[in-house]
Model the fold of this input.
Amino acid sequence: GAGVSQTPSNKVTEKGKYVELRCDPISGHTALYWYRQSLGQGPEFLIYFQGTGAADDSGLPNDRFFAVRPEGSVSTLKIQRTERGDSAVYLCASSSAQGLFFGPGTRLTVL
Amino acid sequence: QQQVKQSPQSLIVQKGGISIINCAYENTAFDYFPWYQQFPGKGPALLIAIRPDVSEKKEGRFTISFNKSAKQFSLHIMDSQPGDSATYFCAASGGYQKVTFGTGTKLQVIP
Done:
């Protein structure tokens, strides 16, 4: 079946702009995660959804970052007033009993 | 605070050789230890995982060795192939599967 999909695959924006990153999880997976991966580093946890609610948002770096999952399926990660330090690959994953299944990521570049 | 330490940072192995990657963790609440494989431009893919009630798990050419008392675990890739060239991440989680990743090992298998 279809895996986790993320759009866009690449996003270039200017400092101070607002961006939205979308994640379509594997059908039927109730748990959804956002991670951020900087160059040469491992994925860093941002937020976890169980259904529609954020069960753990302890990894969000500050209040410029926000994520929603209104219908318990698609999720959107929103970043306000982007900064150059936000440049990274943003990974989405959904999970089953077998573990986490990651999408290909969105590469965000803030100029 | 790095909860999962991984070494080496990079590794070059001859085709047919054994690749060994080591990880150590601090949080004794961790109860699930997966390894992920990541190719350039792709999201991490679950390779193999172990729980602390066993000391070893083997799947094909991939083996995890786990030492609970030392809080260490390792990945062995037997008969390494050029197609195994990728970045490998160890990880750990507890409870609802918030996964904490190591910093990654870039493996290059040379013919």
In short: Chain B is about 0% helix and 55% strand. The mean pLDDT of chain B is 93. The longest strand of chain B covers residues 86-94.
